[in-house]
């Protein structure tokens, strides 16, 4: 390979090893060797190296993204990245972090970022035990196709590497030339595959064939072809950094450590000691990723390659106009509904005060029948899919309510959190189609599910069922409900009677427009917001006057108005509520009220 | 050991081959036999783990041996098995020839031995333990004779008497006696506990040389308990204590301890071969000199010894899970008596040794993966939860001491913090502010709720009469006045509470019901909401929509605080010492100020009078409140909510504060407070007597004075004060008055009238009715002949209206008046016509 002594891409472990040796003062020739226990839970410089490589040398784009497609050719022990949602946490794992080489009793080796030690490790050797966290990640649920990171962004790299690999196959030399031959060969799988002449160490053959062979697969839904879960091992980062349902990009060392699963332990006793979860996750289905760098992804991180633009008011207004026109067209020329839809798409939970989630604006379009939903619903679904990174649709039929598992549930047999439909990352969009609901009786699951839906809309919280107790998890999901009358199962913040005047389908927007709109929706959402003291006075006076006039107005209505005010001003790219925006809120509310009559 | 016991066993074994399986049967065997059993127990990891192999390799070793070798154990029991063990079991001792592992033998030779890798002398530890057992005295016992036996010596005697198998040693005792020993025990539990066992056996054999059971030590109640989340590599091989919930138990696994092989050629039985590092070495050839047949030995299952073993998974309790995390779990290894000690769902506190074993790459390979599986070798398990129903004696006095959920533990730091808080002069206001901070206004209601949370002292007189300490509150109000939010909030805050809605509750659902167990067919009593919220708060929303039947059940609960059941062969009285917090909507959706509370909410007065405080939360068309609402909402949306909420105690602290106060503070009435109560009560009663007025208004009833006492006790509790002071009483009066002014004010006169609550009719109303009655009587006397023709009611009404000067008279007033006259036998009422008789 030449060049630098290490290749972060194809031999990250080598880089790790080098930095480790440097850190403990092995290579420098100095007499004093730092005891590796000093590095427990700490980085010794490897991180910096990778950060530099990824972000300064823009190596990030060259790192292949792990998905079923790339899985076929990505190499064992090479650097990959993986985008996914943390679906479950499997606790901590202890491993031999550093140990003394038996050949010469003085040199230390590290096992960080790998599962199997690269050097033979005899049982009674001097070791340091460190820990790492296990996270079970799944691809972001409901992710739109445009939001998926494109894997052909490195077209130059992959064929080249394929070629390189082929060449190496010929020589039968492992690309990780630092790894002693005998050690790698001792793993039966690699040996076998090499004998078979199969493409190198690629795990592809066992990927799909064995997928269904393992018994007790409770999470079957994740083993389909386009859905690649990943077991991410996190090193040295505080627990509060990574939370359940967060979407992350993990960059790290990929291992297909086949041995653990292949060798079912003979000893029944110690088998019961295995983390049950791991037994149900053979590495041939769930690759392991030893994470070196991870970063949280927000909505705008999904925008493929768009430059970070300054949200300038005039630019924003232009885009807003265009998007509004598009939404109006999609909604059959119903301008009021389009207005509310736009605000709805921009809503997000800003803060929580006790149980109140501030900033949410769930929308209920009423007056829809089964037929009109089939027209507008599908149209909207497509629109959302092209605009939002994560969307999901929930057909609320009686059967669905009675059978679906909306909230995640812990299965103690497998020690896994069985995902529910409502385990969604922050900022997801959820459409609930209630028009298909017919009268009938709900069973206990159905009742539980309606309760969960109601809780979600009212408090933006989902109760996860841990059987012996329930744990409330905060959610931030935009809810759009289609129904004939006002939905009681999902009591939305805004109820808008839908009155389309045209049926003809809207034109398909051009790609640039779509991109601009995506950028708009992602950026404007997170604008800060404030209110001037004068405006505050006006708003307060208006609220008081409204309440004096109509006693039925409550805090919920006021809250909705203020949310709308905020959304209107940020939809125009402003960060401060102005009188004009407030008038717009009142006007919109008036129009809505008229329709409701 | 093998050398002394096994021959005996060999001779004796065949006669009772089953014995090896049925260890709990104590009567089958010869002493030798028993001793062996005892030793088998000794080999549970807690004790036998005494093998301190070279330190770094320990992990690797324990890796392959979840059940550690018991080689040293045997060597170390000089008292019971004087023959040195090494000879008998060369295989096991040879593996770890060196240091302290053979401490037992070495000790006899009085050479100083050390726990491997440390400078802890085995002899020192042994001495320390001996001293501890012999000399430790429970400081609380305050026994006068210093020469009496120590706590643990007595315990040993007791164990010997009942032939027990272990003694529980409180780690606090160890710490108090010898903190150095405690620290050593925490850091080197395997070694120290093994020595502990040896010492124990020495003592046992001194007391009763014939006692041949092995007595184990079980440490519990450590100084500090770890959170499951914080277990880290440095805790490996240390003693830890954890709290959690059992979520899964494996089936019981018989684990082989000793194996006996038989030669199929000559029938020779081998000596029992003990487990060594999780493995049994099978002899490859017959050991009998004459036979020596190769590969002829088979396992004789009947003569092998097995021990119970179970793997249990423990999960974090919900309160330990950080935001955005999932609960952690940890595996526990239970042996012998600990098996089945916890069932899934139990909250337990576990003391044990945190251990790790490495994962083998494969059964055939020597290389070890770099991973470890961790588990806890359980030494002691304590259940934390008592069942709510069975915990207490039905008529036991509420000392308040058991009031708190058992989960809430207070460490000293927290207590200090709470006490500091209680010393603040404005703690009452501060707590009020912190109660449902997003519901503004309603300060007096919140103060009332606060009192309910803290509660008064229950009292049982020697005569058997009991007074409840729980404060019941009713909130009546217009829709949209955040009553339900308040209820939800209190439900969340209350140490124990049930939230139910009146519409969805039936009488049995609230109290208790008898059900048939589907499996056994037995009738069982299932408790309802009120019983479940015993010593807590039962929140009932939509109280007005509750069926009358269900509501009538509340009578008993709210004053007697019990639920009596007599059905299906079960007659029982269950405790329901619960505070009731109910909220109701007015019957005509909006409160009609012209009607009384009773008319507005359609609740029977008998029930209403059982509420200590009744608050009317009315939505007045008041610009001031509207403005405040507007301000509040605007600030919610625009301001940094943290700033808006400053100076507010967070929910966790508030809960802790309430729990602590309920548990530890039991205020008594001071003399001056009592005087003030009497004075105030008399004054309240006096207010009903208007000078020169014939109207007798009852402004206070004995129920009120009870309420007042409860309220002032609660107020004292809020201040963490053991004495009810003057100011508490004054505040209690104020609270009661505020509540009464709202609910018991007679709207026609503006004075407080308890009759409104107790009978639903105010005194002025009664007077008016009387005047209508007398007027009607006069008219009938005038107009109607005795036995003459009947008159229609409407005609009478016309007459009345003509005669009466002031005040309107309605038909229904007249109707009630005529009905009264009819009951007097003065007139007869047929439909609408009145006839004099």
TrEMBL record, chain A:
Residues 171-181 have a biased composition (Acidic residues). Pfam families: MCM_bind (PF09739). InterPro entries: MCM_complex-bd (IPR019140). The keyword rRNA processing does not apply. Signal peptide: none annotated. It is found in: Nucleus. Residues 148-216 are annotated as: Disordered. Keywords: Nucleus. This is Mini-chromosome maintenance complex-binding protein. The lineage of its organism: Eukaryota, Viridiplantae, Streptophyta, Embryophyta, Tracheophyta.
From TrEMBL, chain B:
Residues 14-26, 78-95 have a biased composition (Low complexity). Keywords: ATP-binding, DNA replication, DNA-binding, Helicase, Hydrolase, Nucleotide-binding, Nucleus. Residues 1-111 are annotated as: Disordered. Residues 427-633 form the MCM C-terminal AAA(+) ATPase domain. Its main location: nucleus. Its EC number is 3.6.4.12. Acts as component of the MCM2-7 complex (MCM complex) which is the replicative helicase essential for 'once per cell cycle' DNA replication initiation and elongation in eukaryotic cells. The active ATPase sites in the MCM2-7 ring are formed through the interaction surfaces of two neighboring subunits such that a critical structure of a conserved arginine finger motif is provided in trans relative to the ATP-binding site of the Walker A box of the adjacent subunit. The six ATPase active sites, however, are likely to contribute differentially to the complex helicase activity. This is DNA replication licensing factor MCM4.
